Description:
The protein is built from no helices and 17 strands. By secondary structure, it is an all-beta fold.
Amino acid sequence: MKHIYILLIAFIHYLPIAAQTVFPSAADQPVWHLTEGNPFGNPGQLAVFVLPDEVSLCGKTWGVAQHSYTLANGQSSAPSTIGYYRQVDQRIFFRQTSDCNDREYLMYDFSLETGDSVWVGIPGLNFYTDSVLVRVLNTSTFCSNGVERKTLWLAGYVPDLSGFFPPIEVSLQWLEGIGEIGIFSQHPFYSGTCFLDNNCEGGYRIKCMQTLF
Length: 213
């Protein structure tokens, strides 16, 4: 299994990977290693991974995303499910539960170009909405191990419907093959996490990645 190390310096991301799709599938057996910010102690260490077998839910086939934390004794905690995801062309969809009455969200769309807008799902963003309209500010590509990788910078605002607080600014940066690497939170399944800019006490940072790419 190859190891991919991510060095985050001045928002320049060098990722030595070689993949054929815009996001890892269950067959790729991806594992992201993250730190979770904690103002009350040392940062938490966790692994985000995809189970090798996909599941059938609501008439569609989904990959199962889970995570586990590194305990004080160095062992891993029992895994828990973040949610389910599937890829359609260059788009990645996400759902938090297996209940077909719950919503399915668009999490990534790597076909977008500068100036395009799209609604993405961030259920943990605030109490009033589970989606936000973001606009692509810029895109770029770079070559890594002979594979071109696309990066998108997106931004949007969520109005506070209570009238007591300013709008929430949402800033995203998507990287093919890895996921969300923006300033608020770095998590491949950001639609299944609490966003740093809202009611969260800390954000996530991707340290490295393993994959069969």
